[in-house]
Amino acid sequence: MRLLFLYTTLVISVGFSFQAKAQHPCTYNSKEEARMIQKALPTNALLNESFLSIKKEVDEWVGKDIDVPTPKDPAGGYTHEKHKANYILLFNSANLYQITGEIKYAQLVKNVLIKYAQLNPKLSKHPESKSSSPGRLFHQALNDANWLVYMGLAFDGIHDYLSQAERKQIAEGAFKPEVDFFTKDLNSWFNLIHNHAVWACAGVGIVGIATDNDSYVKMALYGTNLDGKTGFLANIDGLFSPDGYYTEGPYYTRYSILPFYLFANALQHSQPELKVFARRNNVLQKALTGALEQTNTDGGFYTYNDALKEKTYTCNELVEAIGIAWQVYGANPALLPIAKQQNRVTITKGGVQIAQALINKNIGKQYPYHSIQFTDGPKGDEGGVSIVRSNSKEGLTSLIYKYSSHGLSHGHFDKLNINLYDEGHEVLQDYGAVRYIGIEQKFGGRYLAETKSFAAQSIAHNALVVDEKSHYDGNEDESQKNHPNLLFSQIGMDSAVQVVSAMDDKAYANINMHRTEYLLKLPKMNKPILVDILRVLSPDNHQYDLPFQYLGTFISSSFTYKSTKQTQSTLGAKNGYQHLWKEAEAKATKPLTQFTFLNNSRFYTISSLTDDSTQLFFARIGANDPNFNLRHDPVYIIRKKGGNQAFVNIVEPHGSFDPNKELSTDAYSTVKSIQMLQNDEHFTVAEITVGTQPLLIIQCNDQVDKKAQHTAVVREKSYVFKGAFAVYVGGKPL
Amino acid sequence: MRLLFLYTTLVISVGFSFQAKAQHPCTYNSKEEARMIQKALPTNALLNESFLSIKKEVDEWVGKDIDVPTPKDPAGGYTHEKHKANYILLFNSANLYQITGEIKYAQLVKNVLIKYAQLNPKLSKHPESKSSSPGRLFHQALNDANWLVYMGLAFDGIHDYLSQAERKQIAEGAFKPEVDFFTKDLNSWFNLIHNHAVWACAGVGIVGIATDNDSYVKMALYGTNLDGKTGFLANIDGLFSPDGYYTEGPYYTRYSILPFYLFANALQHSQPELKVFARRNNVLQKALTGALEQTNTDGGFYTYNDALKEKTYTCNELVEAIGIAWQVYGANPALLPIAKQQNRVTITKGGVQIAQALINKNIGKQYPYHSIQFTDGPKGDEGGVSIVRSNSKEGLTSLIYKYSSHGLSHGHFDKLNINLYDEGHEVLQDYGAVRYIGIEQKFGGRYLAETKSFAAQSIAHNALVVDEKSHYDGNEDESQKNHPNLLFSQIGMDSAVQVVSAMDDKAYANINMHRTEYLLKLPKMNKPILVDILRVLSPDNHQYDLPFQYLGTFISSSFTYKSTKQTQSTLGAKNGYQHLWKEAEAKATKPLTQFTFLNNSRFYTISSLTDDSTQLFFARIGANDPNFNLRHDPVYIIRKKGGNQAFVNIVEPHGSFDPNKELSTDAYSTVKSIQMLQNDEHFTVAEITVGTQPLLIIQCNDQVDKKAQHTAVVREKSYVFKGAFAVYVGGKPL
């Protein structure tokens, strides 16, 4: 696994001097906050329930001899899960001690920490380790970093209960071997700009604050070289774009936001003068709301890059982050629908405030989603991601258009990829990652080989694939060096016309991909249609595959295809193609090809501009899958050949199907024709008939200035417009 | 399509004389009932909402010219859906007229009926008809029967508003051509014992009552020969077993219960002396509760025989039936959880009563399900179906064991089939039927060819397949002649041991299949395990395939298998095997083979008694499917060869997986060994180790008397027990 070092502009605050003997506890709740929580408990039901739920979990272990086993198993196995359970238990028990003052909770924490103080000095690399950054308690160092974060918080919570000798024993026995391992043995890993390093810095930093170890805190903040080019602050600067987009994507934002917030919260308590939450115009706040904007209405994080579909904003990471955000950045009603669905709060000042805000309030049904654009890269100049949304009484349509940088080691080869959601339903999916986290039998819960061999490949996306090779020929280092660029855009949920246009000329040598998404609310239509115009410019001839990872049931096609019978073969031999069974193929007809499927009680038709040299494929994921790791989802692929080429596809939701009532409405597409009237260096002009409505899209290819005026002549009629595009229905601007 | 004529013992009540000039309306709500509903409306929110919802639908059409198109399209097409919408509209409008007295509703009904009076005499066989029982307004006569039922009710609702001339015009123009077509042209179809005939009789009978046509009513009740061997009453006698099991299975119970109840309700109003609801000890009441017992906790009807998975008890058929049942059979609190989920009531006296019962009541979360046994056949001597249930804090486990008769034209070749549910989740599924009802593009919403070629075949079930041939070699006529027999059983939800044993010796020549299901609640286990013992007795050698239609994600197997890579082929050439892709195969190991999968956050392991001649297959549905009609669900198949053979399989739910918390518990099976210590004409003795608990099952094969005492010697120890089986854990009876 190669991780990227990013340049950072951080200048170390030289005058900063660490308050070595802080008042404890000061990493999670202060004494004053604990008293405030104590007072609020009897009067707030949700707070009290959250408290009692934690108390119940901890009480089961009070007075028992808690096992601290010698590390042996990978994720899902006993020793892994036990050490994981232990750090959560100790964190909770220490917090209970703070709130209730009951000695039994402090004793529990102490007893276990002493056991770790005895165990940890004896450890070396975990026997199940298969990573370049092995752990000691766990198979990978990342999990050891998790352990360090929570154990640091737990230690701080009972700091004053411990004798000085006990503090020394734990600091030197339980913590020092781990900190040394991170900052010496795994020095280059610790000094990464990457979510692993965020966890590692948070762990070392929190332990530093808890044990009054200035040197730990400094290494955590500025990297082991203390030059500020790495460490926690450099990660804040390097991993987020100015508007809070986290380069690894929403699934990992969710994961890394926890150490960012936990350590920042500890710093806010112990060194408020650092103003870490205000850094880069509150970038940590933007990171949180940005992550929430990148969820679907069921709460799931969008699954581009490596991601598991089941993760929603009800996960603990987000409960913790929202609790801290409320406390630090003040009340934010937009968070309340999330907090309500989480149905629990942290036992913190922020948790108290949220629980109070949830009483007697008209809480919205969901997060107030927007059409929103994110830039990528620390300076915001490495492409980005647009979420284009449109609301109707039939629900929220969300289009994700991705023209960001690679996204570090969890990135995929998905330049100019699109995904489409209807409320919480994926219509054009991103496969996500191939992993069963937490299930030992599935390679210890680690990423499975099919993540690289399939899920990360270009063909696994809704992105152009040239000559059956992935972008950058699947080379992560090359991909990480470049990014597409946004050309022009116009978004806004209330707008009938939303457009995002981007270009990539690096993913394939000598090939320029220019893809523009038009999300259009046409008169008399319940839901917006998506017009997807993909121009490919190349001096040489190539094969172009444009896959649609649709989810749903095949309903009908406008073309005749030849399907497999007694045997079937893979669509190709490598780059993800080896995982696709070719179920059917067809020659397209000219000029329009239509394919209709049913997704969650709604019909969708993909209408495509094709000619008689276009090939069509129905394929299915699942070939070459010896461990049955893949889902058997379908794919529809449009294949064209040539040098310069163009794809015009309309994705049209229509009608509905109620199997209980046995009733379907508007089961047929209303797209009657697609014509490309012009497609050159000046203009792309597409004429489409939707029902009886003629739709005309004129796109300017050589001038994206919003103020520039253009005149395009279409069918002998002049159209004068400002900016890079114009959309007309029945001759009038939409 | 071959339909079965059943002998019926009905003796016609000769003295019965029909009251030709009834007071109208008398088919749905009486005048008195309408007044009662009117009064209740302002005071009951759910009733009022239900009323307003219908009113809103009808009001959209009041005063408009409603199209009565010349029939042209199959299901899903315009003319089909329009005629369907028309009969619902007229039924509702007539009911609104009765409740509100507003003339506009009567006018609407009249105008449309007059149009039908003009159209219908001109019609002949529907142009899209592909059935042996074609319709006129619709592609199949069944839909015309639906039309006749609702139009008869609508006519009756406005009977007194119509002039005598109008009544005559409608009776002779709209109804007579349909009634004549049914009772003359389709005479043999009308005289079936089958759900189609129930609809047809209900239509002709309701029209007879509504138009004061005694001859129609008599044909409806006693068949066109008036001998009572066919007709409505013969269907009540012939389609239900004495305990209300409907021979076509729950999906079709749902469908046919509507005409049964609607016509019975009309008869109850017009000829209460017939006491049709009391017939055969309230068999219509038993049919309704029996249908509800055959639903899963999500409301879906069990999908054996031809069935669509999406149908739940919130469908209109059940709303209507529950409304009438409440009115006829009196209050039944067990129905309230259903009514609550339906969230609407009929605008009838029963609807008023249910809506009132739903106020201020502690309504249960779900129907109070039981372990229950149904006999099949009019006399209850044609096998049956057992639903064996077990409740725990982790939810309701439901095992369906089917040893019934074929189930007429919608039956499958599924002798001794089992299905397993965990709450609403299918664990071992029944595929159901291959059909997209209401979607015109999918063969007009009709049954698709893969229903016969795959879904009905034995290999599509969890049933034994011999020599890759379906039961009765796929011959429906032969299958309909026979049925398996129940040997012994002991059920009861609170019992730790529930057992059902049945035998079939007709499905394959010279082969005796004896399958016994043990649902056992073992000490220290959260969920019951299923021990499935299948003995096969045959003088000749055969190939035996036992498929498990599991739903879920492959987690692990105890054996090494060889999986496909670049190409894959079907498992066989016919009898359903041509629709299965062979994804992997393996030689089993001796004596235990285990396969674990994940289904909806719970692990399941199938532990099987195997030897080194046993073969194992992982297959997937979806081969030879030119129209992409099939779901791509997985199948696990155990193949043994020989003469006498035995399968012992344990289906064990265990642990849980929470992907949001990334946490799995008890991910490994606790079954350590399976041994068959004896299996002969006297006893089958299976010794199983579950965790550290030795489980011993002794089954008596030659004596099923509950009172008979047996002594079995196992490992030199004598076990003395009464009845056909005994289950011991750690040497003590469970």
List key phrases describing it.
homodimer; 734 residues; alpha+beta; Glycosyltransferase; Beta-galactosidase, Chain A, domain 5; 3 domains; 8-stranded antiparallel beta sheet; 6-stranded antiparallel beta sheet; 17 helices; 29 strands; 30% helix; 25% strand; elongated; disordered N terminus
Write up this protein.
The structure is a homodimer of 734-residue chains. By secondary structure, chain A is α+β, with helices and mostly antiparallel strands. Chain A has three domains: 209 residues, Alpha/alpha barrel (Glycosyltransferase); 98 residues, no CATH class; 296 residues, Distorted Sandwich (Beta-galactosidase, Chain A, domain 5). The first copy, chain A, is built from 17 helices and 29 strands. An eight-stranded antiparallel sheet of chain A has the order 7-8-9-10-20-17-16-12, with no helix packed on it. In chain A, helix 2 crosses helix 3. The two termini of chain A are 49 Å apart. The N terminus of chain A is likely disordered. Chains A and B meet through strand 12, strand 14 and strand 15 of A and strand 12, strand 14 and strand 15 of B. Strand 14 of chain A pairs antiparallel with strand 14 of chain B, so a sheet runs across the interface.
